[in-house]
Amino acid sequence: MTARAVTEATFEQEVLNNDKAVLVDFWAEWCGPCRAVSPILDQIATEHSEKLDIVKLNVDENPGLAMKYQITAIPAFKVFEKGEVVKTVIGAKPKPALEADLAAYIS
Fold first, then answer.
1. How far apart, in whole angstroms, are the C-alpha atoms of residue 21 and residue 82?
2. Which domain of life is it from (predicted)?
3. Is there a catalytic annotation at residue 57?
4. Catalytic residue among 22, 24, 31, 41, which?
């Protein structure tokens, strides 16, 4: 399983109305650190799919959501539960650090 793309059109259904916790990866094609962390997110998505959904939102293609969630630096990760942001992580990190940040949602 890999992180799937969401857009402004699918965000409410895929993220806000999801029964599971959802990590949203706010990213852009031109962002090197975003591309570097993408395979790590895919691994976490595969290993923890029963507890956490991981989706990607391109900030260049969906500027309204980037503005709404105050994305000023990418990559930025926000964990949503029941439609609310419950955790924010900024910046690319190695897998153990990301898993530590997400421990409450994947363990």
1. 8
2. Bacteria
3. no
4. 31
pLDDT band (50, 70, 90) for residue 103: very high
The reply to whether the predicted model has a pTM over 0.90 is yes
What are the tens digits of pLDDT across the range 1-27?
688 999 999 999 999 999 999 999 999
The Cα 27–Cα 37 span in angstroms is: 10
3-state secondary structure 17-46: CCCCEEEEEEECCCCHHHHHHHHHHHHHHH
Q: DSSP alpha helices (H): ranges in the chain?
A: 11, 32-47, 63-68, 95-101, 103-106
Among the listed residues 22, 34, 40, 66, the single catalytic one is: 34
